[in-house]
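INPUT
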Amino acid sequence: MRKQFVNTVEKILAKDKKSVLLLGDIGVYGFRESFKKYPDRVYNIGILEQSTVSLAAGLNMIGLTPIVHTIAPFLIERCVEQIKDDFGYQGLGGNLVSVGASYDYASLGCTHHCPADVPILKNIPTVEIVVPGNAEEFDSLFNESYNNGRITYFRLSERSNETKLPFVKFGMINIIKRGKLGTVIAVGPMLDRVLAATKNLDVTLIYLTTLRPFDTKGVKRNISGDKIIICEPYYSGALTEDVLACTNKPVKIEHMGIPKEFLTSYGTQEEQDNFLGFNEKEIHNRIKKIINE
Amino acid sequence: MKDLKKKVVEMACKAKEGHIPSALSIIDTVWTLYDKVLYFNPKRPKDLNRDIFILSKGQASLALYVILAEKGFFSKKELENFCKFDNILGGHPHRNKVPGVEASTGSLGHGLPISIGVALGFKIKKKKQKVFVLIGDGEANEGTIWESALLGAHYNLDNLCCIIDHNHSTDRALSVESLEEKFKSFGWKTLSVDGHNQKEIEKALKSSHPKQPMALITNTIKGKGIKMMENNPAWHHKAPTSEEFEIIMKELS
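OUTPUT
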């Protein structure tokens, strides 16, 4: 997805003279050609994320479209107030694109983990949240929304789905399969594992890449059964309110996301996944148990 | 000026809300900006060729509101309803409600980095306008001020002037002294003036600073012109009683 981010943004820089890229000393080598081609619109601002986010809001005040990029905890957790006040409250538009997701930098410790990014941003009204599942989806979702006048967060991840869907639209769910015993919602990079885990289960599988605006109508139309299982690659629970708004009958909602605790082990992203039970076998067992209860 | 100051006090007294001393600390500077320095058109507040002024210390909004009304951005009638539920004028200014307000401020340390973005944006767009931002000396406790000081000099933002209202409001906590030396060491041109002398302020605001941003330290008195308020922290966020109001009005007449 990171390579795709460079390719996508390079094309935008070429065609859209209002686009401005601000790097937090991350991804600089990847954009080396852009620095040469567009020296007045590509900046390695430095390691001062709060000022960078406010600066980006200032650019948008006079009609430019900022794209800010750095590692997730520094872009989101460090800059919550800048995102809230300078973009959200002021009604300004721009793009925040993170790398690292929840624990892509597993070996670097919790300072570089960011499972809280999505729940934090869900608590700032108006911030759009996009969790693409692979490079192609990032490209289409970014092109569709990067200059829509609103502040939009794109969460890049090392984990990428091999499943290729014919189309993924901003603000819309995809129905992957239909079943009767329950509804499973897979967010972004969870899709491959959840799809494999539910192969022989009679459930509806909904795929979600845009978390806000939430496709309430789409989810509402497609809920089956009275059990909803949300498989989300960040702290559990960020979508509960949205999902509850999609049903007017009692349902049981189960979350399969990251528990709210510090993951103090190191190793690899895959080891963290296995530790949390984010693999085909364990996801299958948990979903099967829930729908059979 | 006396009428503007009286209006500030009247608004706060009526609303039982507002930061009068902060407003009186900056009112000479903000008036000089709007009367002598900025290019703007009150009938077209979003005029693409306007200069930009951002009041970063948003708690001093009363001064900005009376001046924007005086210059015709909105009706003076609006001033009568300061802080009322459905009025456009709140304790801190909101850009999406008040014609002429460029940034919604209130939390300190945001206006300067936003201004860096606007100034850099004007460079990108090859526009000639200037950007002025007014921060407080207490606000200079915030790390983003010094992050932005690095950025302003690094990008040679000679279209940016940061005014620092040096009224010693947070000396009791963490005083920020030697502001001139500090900004100078970051690569800014610096000037220091009497923040209640409009001639001095005007001259400084109009001075050129090729290839570098300018920091203008305005040495001010918090609550200037009202003896009971001057440098008295008890008045930071307090509205006068009716008895105090009478005394103040007499003093300002």
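end of record. Residues 174-292 of chain A form a domain with the Rossmann fold fold (CATH 3.40.50.920).
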